[in-house]
Amino acid sequence: xxxxxxxxxxxxxxxxxxxxxxxxxxxxxxxxxxxxxxxxxxxxxxxxxxxxxxxxxxxxxxxxxxxxxxxxxxxxxxxxxxxxxxxxxxxxxxxxxxxxxxxxxxxxxxxxxxxxxxxxxxxxxxxxxxxxxxxxxxxxxxxxxxxxxxxxxxxxxxxxxxxxxxxxxxxxxxxxxxxxxxxxxxxxxxxxxxxxxxxxxxxxxxxxxxxxxxxxxxxxxxxxxxxxxxxxxxxxxxxxxxxxxxxxxxxxxxxxxxxxxxxxxxxxxxxxxxxxxxxxxxxxxxxxxxxxxxxxxxxxxxxxxxxxxxxxxxxxxxxxxxxxxxxxxxxxxxxxxxxxxxxxxxxxxxxxxxxxxxxxxxxxxxxxxxxxxxxxxxxxxxxxxxxxxxxxxxxxxxxxxxxxxxxxxxxxxxxxxxxxxxxxxxxxxxxxxxxxxxxxxxx
Length: 443
Ligand SMILES: NC(=O)c1ccc[n+]([C@@H]2O[C@H](COP(=O)([O-])OP(=O)(O)OC[C@H]3O[C@@H](n4cnc5c(N)ncnc54)[C@H](O)[C@@H]3O)[C@@H](O)[C@H]2O)c1
Description:
This protein is of the alpha/beta class. It is built from 15 helices and 13 strands. Helix 8 runs parallel beside helix 11. It folds into two domains: about 210 residues, Rossmann fold (3-Layer(aba) Sandwich); about 210 residues, 3-Layer(aba) Sandwich (Rossmann fold). Nicotinamide-adenine-dinucleotide (NAD) binds next to helix 5.
């Protein structure tokens, strides 16, 4: 029985006769669904958000990494469709879960989306399916939560159906890599599940990297993000120390990175943003409590990175005071997105910058070519509905200071340098563009 279920599914995958279902059509799910469709599989996308269905039906992509043309091509070829009706899961041979894994108010893992999705799949589970988790999470989630919920149906993992984990490595805004060209780590809860994972992902992406267990693959993803968080915290700390010594941390990094081995550059900034780096490391912190083991690096990195917005506003206040004899009054925050050239403001430190400036009695407007209006956010309700202001010379010269939080490429920094009275540059963008000047202060 086990062998025949496995053989049938493997054959379906190898011949592209398998139908894939992608649950959660967000930053991760939509690009993945399109990459899988492009590799020849029929794909059904599932989401609970009806507004996404309206956009997809109109062949309009709401994710930068997927162009309208790429989306339309897969829909027109009959390889991609999207629905809110989960009954269609029964027709899928491979089901991939790409739903959010945020933190709760108390910074514990919130697996409610993964659990709800697993229960939806359980309602339609049948022999011969491969269920894959792609959401970032702590080691053990796939086997202890997803698999356990699915086995509640009476079907057995490894015999009737198969379970795998493959971490997502999307890098929004990266022009060099996209879903199909980023090597993909894959794992399964046994040799047959792993073979299915290799066959399926091997068809959709150029390189698969098999590891020995789902927990290992879950740990790979957390390790990658913890590595970033800790290294960004390190350069943020070095920035504050070197600034006090009159040393420019960006100059230090540029010279250090000429070492051809044993060094990898990370850059300081106004704090950590995005859906991954500020959040994922704490999934491991939570899990490690079960083993009574501390995760001091993770906690320390979190502390240093979340102190950055306050440090930057301190630099702004100091510069206003020393250069213009002014208190922190009307400043403008440039760049609301958490990183350059994207529209994503999740966990963006810019939101904290605005709040801190205003807590201290100032007033901060923002400009961001990608974010016309601040959407509702869980933690920054008061900022909802504020709109991006223009960046024309007369508007800029009317402000006491401009704080560059995100260095979007489309901004005319030369014009900004000319019209702004004082600039606080958290990204070293003016120096990089040869626009260093007395009124440009790095922070
Ligand atoms: N955004 C990234 O760059 C990135 C990178 C690597 C890993 N991840 C991880 O991937 C996962 C998904 O992140 P994302 O950025 O794509 O999130 P997202 O918020 O962009 O998308 C999630 C989608 O899931 C849908 N959804 C929520 N509950 C659902 C349910 N019960 N059934 C069906 N759909 C449901 C939402 O409507 C949304 O469309 C998270 O675990 C995240 O940590 C994200």
